[in-house]
Records
---
Amino acid sequence: MPCFFLQASAQSPTKVTGKVTDAKGEPLVGVNITLKGKTTGTSSDVNGTYSLTASDANAVLVFSYLGFNSQEITLSGRTQVDVILEASAKSLNEVVVTGYQTERKKDLTGSVAIANVGEMKKQVVANPIKALQGQVAGMLITGNGAPSSPTTVRIRGIGTLNNNDPLYIIDGVPTKAGMHELNSADIESIQVLKSAAAASIYGSRAANGVIIVTTKHGKNGVMQANVNAYTALSTYNRRIDMLDAQGYGRVLWQAYVNSGYDPNTNGLRYQFNWNVDPVSNQPVLNNVMVAEYLDNAHTLKSANTDWFKEISRVGVTQNYDAQVSNGTPNGNYLLSLGYFDNQGIVKTTNFNRISARLNSDYKMFGGGLTVGQNLSLTKTREVGADIINSAIQALPIIPVRTVDGMGWGGPVDGMNDRQNPVRVLNDNQQNNYDYLRVFGNFFAEAKLTKGLMLRSNVGIDYGDYTSRNWQKKYQSGYLVNNVNKVINTQTHNVKLTWTNTVNYDLVQNNHRLNAVAGTEFYSDKTTSFMASREGFVLEDPDYMYLDAGTGIKDNGGYGAKNTLFSYFAKANYSYLDRYLLSGTIRFDGSSRFGQNNKFGTFPAVSAGWRISEEPFFKKQTKIFDELKLRADWGKTGNQEINNNAIYNIYLSSYNITAYDINGAKSGVLPSGYYLSQNANPNLKWEATTMSNFGLDFSILNQKLYGTVEYYIKKTSDILLLPPYIGVLGEGGNTWVNGASMQNNGFELSLGHRSKIGRDWSIDVSGNFDAVRNKVTKLPSEVVNAYGGDGRGQNILGRTFGSFFGYVADGLYQTQQEVNSSAAQPGKGLGRIRYRDLNNDGVINDYDRTWIGNPLPKFTYGFNAAINYKNFDLSFLLQGLGSVDVRNEAKLFTDFWSATESSSNKGARLLNAWSPLNTGSTIPAASLTDDNFESRPSTYFIENGAYLKLRNLQIGYTFGASLLSKIKVKALRVYAGGDNLAILYKSKSFTGLDPETPAFGYPNPLVVTAGLNLKF
């Protein structure tokens, strides 16, 4: 029941004042207080107080606040009304979206996680989903630091050999497109449907989980205007320490003398003063000398270039959001505008987004009909660059520019052909893409009778991609391109969704029934066109269009379309708010399958028991607000294959089909066609079944709350395209069903809220999950395509993606060790020794084994929010347990010749093994990789466990007395940062960031300052 206090007053009931607090006595800021049936209203200030004028002494005040239950209070002549609002943001009565309908949280029987949207918005990322790292148990999110925040999401592990991305539902419209086009400020809530029973209502697209996003709407009774703005600076958290010009010379000399060659014959413009120590009989380097000029024309002066420094800058991010909203009993609207610009830490890279949103709905015929739309328009622009590997390999003695400052530095004879990274960035800076996206829905909702509602929803997702890519002329050392080129690309994608549903709600005595049934049509059509031309006199943006070129033309294009048609139904039943039952069925038909198996059926059933509502339990203890046991089983599908997978495909190829069919023996031979793919009319749906068992609890008025879950997820009939041997001839490609996979997982989520004294409050939450994966079945033709040796060792029974290779057993330290070890071509002092696993005295491919598991043993996150008076502090920790990662950087930091010997290397090689440095674990520098040390082995497999401080923010909310003078409702300023520190990483990891062990765009350290303003 609502809890409130009334105090009488002798004054006229024209002015009403009061204070709004929560159950803990804390003032609530920004509560909407309106007069029922009117648009007049106000909101509470930072102290929770309010005042408004009522024309009627018996007027009804409506108190509404996001995350709390609304209350209606009749004045009855009173002029002061103090109200205590009951929290619902994390309460049992919270309403969550679960697919074509909403449910009370206490009625849920499937596995549904509610993301903390407020914490998500504190991070400086273009993609709001990336900001959920560490916040949802069972959802692993990875990504690099590129300006557009590319993100990979895995819900409850890897479930297929195909696309493992989840399905996103934004205001009822499905998509798998990039979430970096969605403005975080527009998001109201995010729910993650993890179990098959929760997600099966979406059938064939729900096998990898479903993420439901609901955007904001205007609130009834009061006009609001919000402005949010922040600026952030970003820089490298860490970077690979590469050799400078002197260091490169030292290791070059060492590699030559280790290999028995004269280092002064290197051809890389290095000369050395060295001798052999008569006492130790070991070579000694006295001095490294570099020629003043690298070329005979003296245009390239030798340098000591730090290529990482040359391609880097301090990144700057700007974000501005403005929202205006209003609402009446007959409708509401919300208009938002957003601007996001991230100039990345790699020069010339950037991502820019301009967004606009209009959400509105209008009630007609006394509320019997509601029409509305949720519509967003975004324009994104991005310039990317995959340049880190080039910066690693570019030689430090090469200058950025020629001596006149006009030309580009580059390699000379004797050096490798690696490009000047600065030139690549400079010439690529205009090669952006522009993407215009219209996304949203139009709907009409009619109340037919009490509890019966009909809804029709049309969703649109239109994308227009355009790019004009230049390939400019250049000379960089001996690397020359004399022909410039323009490539124009246009891609149009139209996705339409038409959904019709009928919802029925019944609440009678102790019974509660909610049911939905409907149909859905989905269409996805893509067309793309490419044209290019060479030979442009001017390299100017106003000139380099196709018509201005004089050289070779080229063009290409493609089109694709697929459709789905579905029937679905779901019913939720509750008795005594104690016994819960839910059932779902979906019948999907896809154009990607042939007539034999066009439709798939996806059922689900779940049940729950709210033990805390049992009289016998209440007699035993009163500490539980909620104790619910639930179980569910469901089946979902997957159709992520090529649109043409079921067809015979014939392609033209002049090289293999040209034939002199007329016997003319002269002229151009006519081209024929060859069979590229054989049809498989029996291809059918890939299916995932999941059993889920959960326990939800809340203790002592929700001071402690949490969820424990265990699940078994099995995928069968996985769709795949097996490789084939050449003797099969034409048409060897054929899509088949046949693989199976299983995931077992455990998840734990805990939270705690409390108040300490009058001024302190704390809200903390944490999550932990562990998942185990294994491949349980593979067709014989592909059993060795995912690792193994073809002699019995294969991926079956192991985690998908497991590493296979040799076991590195340290370095050879003495000649005796070399002589007594197994036969190994290229073995020698300072070289890696590989373990003879089968003890046959020879190191060969029979000694390979499984050397690493890419799946973390567990993942975890911890979020804390601490408030003291007007100050607030929050931080987010996120981490992974033990996980095997392949540190690709070691190919360049630990070896002179594992890839090739003339590019730059890591500074770790200064400590490589030598007769005078036998304690090193880094192999001796060598001109050639005679020992084949680039082979997959445990030398590159390291423990990628980590704990990161993902985000920290401190803020201050100004008091009402100051704000009233400037007519501002609320003002908060804050400062913080992202990726502030790696608090822990495994000692075995020798790289920089275990989250990105290869050469991806680094995750930068970000420092932010901003404000939230409400009028």
---
Amino acid sequence: MTRERLYLFDTTLRDGAQTAGIDFSVEEKIVIAELLDRLGVDYVEGGYPGANPTDTAFFEAKRTKAATFTAFGMTKRAGRSAANDPGLQMVLGSAAEAVCLVAKSWDYHVRVALGCTNEENLESIRGSVEAVTASGREAMIDCEHFFDGYKANPAYALACAKTAYEAGARWVVLCDTNGGTLPSEVMEIVGAVTAHVPGVHLGIHAHDDTGHAVANSLAAVAAGVRQIQGTLNGIGERCGNANLITLVPTLMLKSPYREQFELGVSAEALADITSISRAFDEIINRSPDRHAPYVGENAFATKAGIHASAILKEPETYEHVPPETVGNRRRVLVSDQAGKSNLIGELARLGIAVDKADPRLDALLADVKEREAQGYAYEAADASFELLARRRLGEVRRYFDVLSFRVMVERRFNAIGELVTVSEAVVKIDIDGETHMSVGEGNGPVNALDTALRKDLGRYQSVVDEMELTDFKVRILNGGTDAVTRVLIESYNKRTHKRWFTIGVSGNIVDASFQALIDSHTYTLLKAGL
């Protein structure tokens, strides 16, 4: 059976750039374009040349190797020719190989936003597509608000799509711009459109305002479209766009899509998709969604003891696809619900070889359950769990012993009359029988403790200097000012670029923080092979 070709159009660098808190530089756009080439998408929409200095500079040269380098723009203004429209000419003067123009397809927007007649809007669509094709580029039209427009005036929405197609547009993209359309509506409306524009020339652009962007994209494919627009990790305006990181594995691994369609993404690239997703989060300085489908850290995590026992025997019992096909891995979590099967599986993942009959496993399992009863959560703190396990198995030396610590927080006016808060910490430790005492200041008690602890670690100093704290989370476990506090610290090694989490629990937030801090320093030394 010959499979049909589905085309992936990535708009991370254009529509995704409208995400609150995200602002790409030219250099970041270049790196992200390389990631998209690595994944194997067909089109990379890089932005709007002429709209801002960043996008203009980005389009001074072709930025993709394999994907079609695509510029975004608007159809010409009503009442003027394409040659006399500065915005359109700026797009046509760029290094783009294809041009995707947004066009109004809802008569309400034509009247309110454009202030022209419906016929003038159709002429703008026609003239703009003809100008793009005359320049030797592939032309696409994003029919903005198509689904809302179709529901309000089906004849006019269809007229916009037909005009674009008949003028020579390679792709006519149906946009759910407000993100409020549901899968059953998408299926029905796309089916109606295919009677006028062939599905091999139709695309879908879905927003996630009801949480259905991926489902709407799949519904559109089932109804006939053959291009899907989306973004890496689903970023985008408001609630985001269709998530290509979810769509690609679904299309390649799930029936009936895998039997019916083929993508430009190879099996090798699919096995790299978890890495690509997390690399993108690093570039935009966001923590990865640990529960993201396919690529999340917990996407193949099992906690319940019965499930864990089964999954270690036959993974298919609780996994819908093998995690390695998407570059992820199986995780059997260690928690108070765990049995020995969980424990053995987690130890194996961490590279700790131990016989299942080893009596120390029972003691370790008891340790874990007792600590989690106190408030520890090792499923969120792999590094602290690894230290606990290796200590119970006698595989971690005592690099240093903390003899005491003291923290002082002072709120006062400085020399120029500003109210400031200053933290000072004193830490006394023992290294190889020698006492070291250090003082550190910081913008908070944890920062001050970290500064003091790492100030003089003797022969371990150069190794600890590679580590820095990147995140600090506090959770109150049982309410009230005397509550038990759980602290989770994320750390990062500047040399190896590895990240890890450590945990501390105490009725005193500073003590809980210091526990997690000590674990992080110790884990750094352990991983350095000392």
